[in-house]
Amino acid sequence: MAAEQGVESETDRVVRQLRDEILDGARAPGSKLVERDLAADLGVSRVPVRDALKTLVAEGLVTPRPRTWAVVREFTASDIADLQEVRAALEVLTFKLAAARHSRAGLDRLRAALDEETSAAAAGDAVTARRAAADFHEAVTAMAGNELLNELELTLRSRMRWLLGQHEDLERVAGEHRALYDAIARRDVDTVEALLMEHMESGRHLRGLGRGED
After folding, report:
1. Rg of the Cα trace of the chain?
2. Where exactly are the structural domains of the chain?
3. Closest to 183 measured CA to CA, from 172, 192, 173
4. pLDDT tens string 103-113
5. What's the CATH architecture for 10-72?
6. 186: exposed, middle or buried (Cβ count in 10 Å: 0-12, 13-18, 19+)
7. What is the pLDDT of residues 84-95, one digit of tens each?
8. For 60-64, what is the mean pLDDT?
9. For this protein, what is any one GO molecular function term (predicted)?
10. Is 24 a residue whose pLDDT tops 60?
11. How far does Cα 119 stand from its chain's mean position?
12. Which three-class secondary structure string do you get for 111-157?
């Protein structure tokens, strides 16, 4: 029988916990994910662990290995360059549409993510700041009012959240998001595009990553 609506299944709980641990850096790239050990740690049978690992493989966060284990994905410089290219193509359109089409409710959601990021960055809470920074980008996608963009964002969400979490200068990123928020709120599409290009370029330089650096 299917789980009651609103009740999280064991598989979903394992997916959520492992995903958060990977994105927050608690499970390092290359670390082993062994079904038996995870089942014991999480207090579940091996079946939901096995299903959760399949989901995380599909999301691009885990690399499968033979039999009953996997590893946390080690993103190469080439992988990251691919993500950055796709991000650049999608986000320019997304942010411009959000600036032109946003509603009051969408702007309120964006402001809530920004405020949480700003407070966490000031407090040095890296995990919360990075999560809120990713929430900011997802809120912009929702504001764009384009269902295909929403579908693409869902497909890429875990990998993009990983990419967006690869920064140390929490307050700088929050400041760039604040400038983007202000321009979106004014419906200033040209300024949004210019600020976004600077935002993506500064992030690329901070990571020091590009093609040919594997």
Report:
1. 18
2. 10-72, 77-207
3. 192
4. 999 999 999 99
5. Orthogonal Bundle (1.10)
6. exposed
7. 999 999 999 999
8. 97
9. DNA-binding transcription factor activity
10. yes
11. 19
12. HHHHHHHHHHHHHCCHHHHHHHHHHHHHHHHHHCCCHHHHHHHHHHH
**The token pair that represents 82 in the structure block:** 């691919």
Domain spanning 77-207: CATH superfamily? GntR ligand-binding domain-like (1.20.120.530)
Could you tell me the CA-to-CA distances from 3 to 13, 16, 171 in Å, in that order? 13, 17, 42
Looking at residue 204, its pLDDT comes to 72
User: Span 134-139, mean pLDDT?
Assistant: 98
Task: Please report the pLDDT score of residue 36 as a whole number.
Answer: 95
7 pLDDT band (50/70/90 cuts)?
Answer: confident
- Residue whose entry in the numeric block shows the structure tokens 């359109």: 93
Please tell me the number of Cα atoms within 13 Å of 20 on its side-chain side: 8
Q: Which of 72, 77, 31, 81 is CA-nearest to residue 53?
A: 72
Cβ atoms 142, 105 nearer than 8 A: no
Read off the tokens for 175. 């400041």
Residue 19's CB is within 10 A of a number of other CB atoms, namely: 21
pLDDT of residue 213: 43
Determine the Cα–Cα distance for residues 112 and 101; give it in Å rounded to an integer: 19
Of 170, 116, 113, which Cα lies nearest the Cα of 141?
Answer: 113
C-alpha closest to that of 23 among 161, 206, 207: 161
Q: What is the DSSP string of 104-122?
A: HHHHHHHHHHHHHHHHHHH
